[in-house]
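>> Question from a student workshop board

For tomorrow's exercise we were told to take the sequence and the ligand below, predict the bound structure, and bring the output to class. My setup keeps failing. Could a helper post the expected result so I can at least see what it should look like? The ligand is 6-O-phosphono-beta-D-galactopyranose.
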Amino acid sequence: MSKFPSTFLWGGATAANQYEGGFNEGGKGLTMIDVTTNGSHTNPRKISWRIPQTGETGVTEMVFGGNMVFPEGAQPCVLDGYYYPSHKATDFYHHYKEDIALMAEMGFRTFRMSISWPRIFPDLESDTPNEEGLKFYDDVFDELNKYGIEPLVTLAHFEIPVDLVMKYGGWQNRKAVDLFVKYTTTVLNRYKGKVKYWLTFNEINMMEFMQSSTIGVLNATDESKAQAALHQFLASSLTVKAAHEISSDYQVGMMLCYMPLYAETCDPADQLFVLKKAQEQFLFYSDVQMTGKYPNYKLMEYERKGISLKTEADDFDIIAKYPCDFMSFSCYGSTTFTTHDDFVANGGGNGIMGKKNPYLEANAWGWETDPQCLRIALNTLYDRYHKPLFIVENGIGWADVLEEDNTVHDSYRIDYLRQNIRAMKDAVLIDGVPLMGYTMWGCIDLVSAGTGEMKKRYGFVYVDMDDLGNGSLKRYKKDSFYWYKKMIASDGEDLD
Ligand code: BGP
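>> Workshop helper replied:
Here is what the output should look like for this input. Compare the format with yours to find the bug.
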C-alpha cells in the first residue's frame, strides 16, 4: 500500500493575523499584531505605543525568547510613519472567493484558517457579538462548503485583543477565561453544521518564546507565564466542553509548536539537557491538554521556583475532564543542543534557537530543514498520547521570484515537500501512526509572523505584494501549485 486513505485531509493553513487584512473594516477591534510593525531577519518587529498622559510615543522591540519592557503608562497603538503588515496582509478579506477557488483547484479537502476574536467581539465586555464579523466567516465557510472543503478553524492564532492586554494584563488575569469562552461559545453555536474541526490556541507553547501576541503579558515572569498557561488550559477545556454539548460532530484539537530536539553528542549531559528542554518548553503543554493532568516535572519546577498557581476549586477537575480530542502541531524542522562550552545558538528555527546541525541545510532565515522531522515527531507524539494527530503547519519560507511570464519556479519547495511528505507517509504507512491530515503552512502567500516580511513566502500561490505593502495583490500559481495538485489527486502516491 503506498497511498494515503482517500479520507485523508490534504490542504493548506493560514491565520487571520497574517492573511486576512481588513483590520479596520466590518467593525473589527484592534489586536496586538495590528500595532506590530514590519521587520526583517536582522531587524526585529516592534510594538508601537503612546503614553496618554504625556503624549510621548515610541516603539519597543519584539524579542524572541525575552521579555519586552514598555515605559510606564504606555498604551500599544497605531502610529503614523510606521508600516503594519497585518492591516492589509494579503487581503483574504476581499479575495476569499478567488483564493478558495484556487484551493479547490488544487484539490484541497481542508483549509485551516483562524477567526479573529476582536472581529467577533470588538468590545470584549459586550454580550452582543458583531454581526458583520460573524457574517464574514459565514460567507467564508459557505464558500468552502460549496467546494466540499472542510474548514479547520483556529480560535486563537496570535489575534490577541489590545483591550485584553491593556485592561486586564492579558492571560495572567482569570477574566480572560470568561471573555474567551464567551467568544468561543458564540462561534461554536453560530457555525454548527458548517465546521467540524476546531483548534483552541495556536502553538500554545509559543508563550515560552514570544509573549505579546500569545498571552498578551508584557514583561512576563515565570510566575505570570505559569498563571497564563493555567488560564489557557482552562479556557481550552471549557471550549471542549461547550463544543461537545453543542454538537456531537465537533472535534476540538490542541496545537503545539513542535520539533524534534537532538543532542549534539552522546554525552549523557547533552541527552538529559534535550530531554528537559523538550519537557519544559514543548511537552508540558501537550501533556496537560492531551492527558488532562499537570506532569510532576512541572509541579516540581513550580515548587523550586516558588510559584504557586492561583486556582479555583474545580480548575484541575475541569482540565482533567475535558482534554482535547486530537493533537495538532506545527513542525518545520528540528533543533540541536549541546551542553559543551562551545555552544552558540547559531541555528535558526521556529522560536527556539539551537546549534547549527552539520547534516542539515537551512534557508535564508536560518531555518534548518530536516527530511526526517515529521516521521520522528509523529512517532514521538503518538507514542506519548495515543490519540489522532494532525499536521497543521509544515513548509518552507523562500524569497520566491515572479518571472516576467508570471511563473514562479520553486523547485526548492517541491523538494522540501517531497521529502517531508515521504517521511510523513512512512510514519503512517510503515509505523501505523493515525494521522488525520496535513495542511501546508501559508498555502497562499502571506505575511511572516516572525519578521513581518512578505518576501519570506511559503505559498503555492504567489501574491504580488512587497515588504512595504506595495503591489497589485494579484495571485499567480507557482510550480508547486501543480505539484501539490498532482500529489493530492494520487492520494500521496505520486511524489515525483
Ligand atoms: C508558526 C506560526 C505561523 C507561521 C509560521 C512560520 O510559528 O504558527 O503563524 O507564521 O510559524 O513562521 P514565520 O512566519 O515567522 O516564517
